[in-house]
Design a protein that fits this description.
mainly alpha; 8 helices; 2 strands
Length: about 240
C-alpha cells in the first residue's frame, strides 16, 4: 500500500483531473454565422472576408465609442445629445451612411483624424475620433463597405490604415490638453485595477486590417504561382497513349 502522503497526492490529482474534465458550461459566447443572403452569390471568398472584416471593424469602433463615452460623459453632452445612447445612435447613422460630421469642418480621412486628436479641438472628441477613423478605414477600402466580384482592395492602403490606427492610439495616450490632462480617459493601470479594453478593441481592428492586407497580397501571389503551375504541370499531367 502506498504511503499516506502519496495516497493523498493521488486523491488531489484525481480531483484536479476530474475538474478539468468537467462538462459544466462556461458562458464565453459562441461563433455565430450570418444568415445567407442573395447578394453573396456575387461574392468570392475574398470579397466575403473583406465585407465581414469591415463590418467587425466598424462595430469595434462603435464599441470603443461606447466605452469612451462611459469614461468621458462630458463628451457626448457637447454634441447636444440627450443621452449617451442617443449620441451613439447619431454616430452610428453618420458612419453607416457616410455623412459628414459637422465639428470636423468638412475634413475627411486622415485630415479629420488629425483634427480630432488636436489638443485645441473643442467639440465631442469621442464622436470626432471614431467618425474620422471609420472614414479613414472605409477610404482605405476604396470607399466601400461591401465587396463583390468586380471589387478589389489595395493591400498597401490597408496596411497604411492599420498603421494610422496605431498612430491614433499612441497620440490618444500621449497628448495632453492645455490643462495637462489626457485628451480622453481610456486605458488605465492603477491601484484600483487594470482596464485595457480600449487597447484590445483597437488591437483587433489593427489585426484585421493587417490580415486582410496580407491576404490580398497573398491572393495575387498565389494566382501567379497557380498560373505557372498550370503551364509547367500541363506537360507532366497529360494522359499518355497506351496503345
Amino acid at each position: 500500500m502506498a504511503p499516506a502522503p502519496r495516497r493523498l497526492a493521488c486523491v488531489w490529482l484525481g480531483l484536479a483531473l476530474a475538474g478539468c474534465a468537467s462538462t459544466a458550461p462556461t458562458p464565453r459566447g459562441e461563433v455565430k454565422g450570418a444568415a445567407a443572403a442573395p447578394g453573396e452569390l456575387a461574392q468570392s471568398d475574398a470579397n466575403r472576408m473583406a465585407t465581414l472584416a469591415m463590418r467587425e471593424n466598424l462595430e469595434g469602433l462603435l464599441r470603443i465609442a461606447d466605452k469612451l463615452y462611459r469614461r468621458n460623459p462630458a463628451e457626448w453632452r457637447k454634441g447636444g445629445a440627450s443621452s449617451r445612447e442617443q449620441a451613439l445612435d447619431q454616430l452610428r447613422t453618420a458612419i453607416v451612411q457616410r455623412q459628414h460630421w459637422a465639428p470636423l469642418q468638412g475634413r475627411r480621412d486622415i485630415a479629420a483624424m488629425g483634427l480630432a486628436l488636436a489638443p485645441e479641438f473643442a467639440g465631442d472628441r469621442v464622436a470626432a475620433l471614431i467618425h474620422a477613423t471609420a472614414d479613414m478605414i472605409v477610404t482605405a477600402h476604396g470607399g466601400k463597405t461591401e465587396f463583390f466580384l468586380l471589387d478589389g482592395v489595395d493591400a498597401q492602403h490597408l496596411y497604411n490604415a492599420a498603421r494610422n490606427v496605431e498612430t491614433a492610439v499612441w497620440l490618444l495616450a500621449q497628448r495632453r490638453n492645455a490643462q495637462g490632462q489626457p485628451l480622453l480617459l481610456a486605458d488605465e493601470i492603477g491601484a484600483q485595477g487594470r482596464n485595457l479594453s480600449f487597447e484590445r478593441e483597437f488591437g483587433k481592428i489593427i489585426a484585421r486590417l493587417d490580415l486582410l492586407a496580407t491576404f490580398t497580397t497573398e491572393k495575387y501571389r498565389r494566382a501567379a504561382i497557380s498560373y505557372v503551375q498550370g503551364i509547367v504541370g500541363g506537360t507532366f499531367l497529360q494522359f499518355l497513349p497506351v496503345r
